[in-house]
Structures are given as structure tokens and as C-alpha cells.
Automatic annotation (TrEMBL):
Designated name of the protein: fructose-bisphosphate aldolase
Keywords, in A-Z order: Lyase, Schiff base
Family named by the database record: Belongs to the DeoC/FbaB aldolase family. FbaB subfamily.
Keyword Lyase: yes
Organism listed in the record: Candidatus Macondimonas diazotrophica
Group of enzyme by EC: lyase
Gene Ontology biological process terms, A to Z: glycolytic process
A GO MF label: fructose-bisphosphate aldolase activity
InterPro entries hit by this protein: Aldolase_TIM, DeoC/FbaB/LacD_aldolase, DeoC/FbaB_aldolase, FbaB-like
SMART domains: DeoC
Length: 349
């Protein structure tokens, strides 16, 4: 098992012993081996959706724990293939992507229509597929940021995917159209029995104020999570909150002083606990993203996993940290993340 305390370094005491007091854990629906029976069986989701949710929860090293570890590889579109795969050219090949998810013990692999369609007959029965159907691309000039439909929900169903994913840029001028497109697509996915995951990102240049980037603010990302849950996301993918007070600093929208005075503190677990609360108090699982690759990937990935788990989240979705390194190291990094969720001594704060 991974030496989690060592990787956390000077933060170990704070992250491993903190107790959330603003929103107590007893108020949440927490991940567990009975999550589908305890939470989703009450919803309007069909038996086929419930089966596919259980398939997702039942696969990989975290199988039947209620937690998920997902390998996402859509960066070839979102960030360009060169920027994503030049560090490890084997990942230009969709086969290598699927193999890393399998060898890494992941619950699922999430990628583009092209990647998954190329490998569907070989791998769809071996590891759950989540097809992401919209993307931003940066080959257009001038560069623009918008989520465009690249594939249909029916194409995901036909290839054997158990779920679909999509992104909405909340706060962007295009967000209203994206919300409508994704809401309709998620309804169709549920009709076909598939799981839905929303990448609920905030994006607006106005969210940066006086040198502070409030795209990672707990109050703004929390509202993005709430809208994501509202339009039918079964699981919400969100960047980990790093600050708070976006509404007040930018001076827009509506909020409440209790968000800052009682429900949260500046502790990272409290900030992510607020993100979980906005996912219908954990009824829609919160998975945090692993972020871009850097010098201290193992420590950063484990730190994010500890914060997510202790906040009441459902897992981690980590891509570049895993695939922009030698294959065996990628497997080891994914396993390190999973070890956090398998460690019974790391409890809910």
C-alpha cells in the first residue's frame, strides 16, 4: 500500500484529523457498497440505469466500495493531441488508453467517441466505457472556448458504453445553450439506460479578480454542481475548490453570508464539503479532477484523493498525471489514488 502520510508531508496532521463542523457528515449520503440500493433506487432512474451504475461501482480495485477511480482521456481534443501525448507517444494509440485503465485497476475509462469506438469490440466487455460527447477544440483561430457536440448518445449506446459524459462551461455566454443540449442528451441517455457524468466547469474571464482566480471558488463551483445535479447528472466531476467568496469578490449573483461564516472555513476539506453539499448532499456523487501533470504528481494526487474522500466525495478522475509518464508509473499513480479510498483509517471528516 502507498505511504499516504509520507506523501502528505507537513499537511498530514491537518488533512487526516480535521473535522467538518459547518456541514456535518451525518447530513450527507456517503459512498458505500449499498449506494445504488440506498440512494438511486428512490429515483426515477430505470432498472437499466441502476444496473449500469452498479457495473461502474463494481469494477476495478475499488469494486463494491462505493468509490470510483476513472481514467479520463479526452485531452487530445481539449488540449491538443501534441500537448497531451507527446510526453508519452504510446497514448496516441487508443489501445494503450484502454490498457492503462485496465492495468491501473480503474472503474471505467472515459474518452472520446473516436477513441472508444476504435476499441469497443475489444474492450467494452472488459472495462466500463464512458463516452464524452461534447468537447472544446483549440485548432480554430482565433481560439474560442465552447463545448460542441462531437457525437450522439445513441452512438455511445451502440458501442456498448455504460455511460456518457459532457461538459458545461457555467458562467460562459454559451452556457445556456450548453445546459439545454446536455439536459436533453442526459434525458436520452437515461432512456437508453446509461449513466450520466457532467464535467461542471466554471468559465468566464470576469471570474478572475485582482489576481485571484475564482474559477476554483467553493461558492461558484458549488452552484455549478447544483445545476449539474438539476439537469440529470448521476455523478458530477468538479475541480477541487481552492478558495471561496467568488460571488462577493466579483459582486454578482446571489449568495448568503452563512456560506462563509458557518458552512465553510478556509480548510480544503470544508471547501470540498460545500461542493459535495451542492450535489444534493452527496446523492449525486462528487468526483474531483486530478489536474495537470507536474513535478509532484504522486503527492498531489494523493492529497486530492484524501481531501475528496474525507469531504464525502465519491472518488477521483485523473488523466494527465497517469498517462504523461511511463506506463508502469501511470499504473502506480492510479493505484496510489485508489489506496486512499481502500484505507479504512482515512475516514469521513
Amino acid at each position: 500500500m502507498t505511504d499516504i502520510t509520507a506523501l502528505l508531508g507537513d499537511e498530514a496532521q491537518s488533512l487526516l484529523t480535521h473535522t467538518c463542523r459547518g456541514i456535518a457528515k451525518e447530513r450527507l449520503e456517503l459512498p458505500g457498497d449499498d449506494f445504488v440500493d440506498r440512494v438511486f433506487v428512490q429515483t426515477d432512474r430505470s432498472p437499466t440505469v441502476l444496473r449500469n451504475l452498479q457495473t461502474l461501482f463494481g469494477h476495478g480495485r475499488l469494486g463494491n466500495t462505493g468509490y470510483v477511480s476513472i481514467l479520463p482521456v479526452d485531452q487530445g481534443i481539449e488540449h491538443s493531441a501534441a500537448a497531451s501525448f507527446a510526453p508519452n507517444p504510446d497514448f496516441f494509440d487508443p489501445k494503450t488508453i484502454c490498457e492503462l485503465a485496465l492495468e491501473g485497476g480503474c472503474n471505467a475509462v472515459a474518452s472520446t467517441y473516436g477513441v472508444l469506438a476504435m476499441m469497443s469490440r475489444r474492450y467494452a466487455h472488459k472495462i466500463p466505457f464512458i463516452m464524452k460527447f461534447n468537447h472544446n477544440e483549440i485548432l480554430s483561430l482565433p481560439v474560442q472556448y465552447d463545448q460542441t457536440l462531437f457525437a450522439s448518445v445513441d452512438q455511445a449506446f451502440d458501442m456498448g458504453a455504460i455511460g456518457v459524459g459532457a461538459t458545461v462551461y457555467f458562467g460562459a455566454p454559451e452556457s445556456r445553450r450548453q445546459i439545454q443540449e446536455v439536459s436533453e442528451a442526459f434525458a436520452r441517455a437515461h432512456e437508453l439506460g446509461m449513466v450520466t457524468i457532467l464535467w461542471a466547469y466554471t468559465r468566464n474571464n470576469a471570474f478572475k479578480k485582482e489576481g485571484v482566480d475564482y474559477h476554483l471558488s467553493a461558492d461558484l463551483t458549488g452552484q455549478a454542481n447544483h445545476i449539474a445535479s438539476t439537469i440529470g447528472a448521476d455523478i458530477v466531476k468538479q475541480k477541487m475548490a481552492e478558495n471561496n467568496g467568488g460571488y462577493k469578490a466579483i459582486n454578482f449573483g446571489k449568495t448568503h453570508e452563512k456560506v462563509y461564516s458557518e458552512l465553510t472555513t478556509d480548510h480544503p476539506i470544508d471547501l470540498v464539503r460545500y461542493q459535495v453539499a451542492n450535489c444534493y448532499m452527496g446523492r449525486c456523487g462528487l468526483i474531483n479532477s486530478g489536474g495537470e501533470s507536474g513535478a509532484n504528481d504522486f503527492a498531489q494526487a494523493v492529497r486530492t484523493a484524501v481531501i475528496n474522500k474525507r469531504a464525502g466525495g465519491m472518488g477521483l478522475i485523473s488523466g494527465r498525471k497517469a498517462f504523461q509518464r511511463p506506463f508502469a508509473e501511470g499504473v502506480k499513480l492510479l493505484n496510489a489514488i485508489q489506496d486512499v479510498y481502500l484505507d479504512s483509517s482515512i475516514t469521513i471528516a
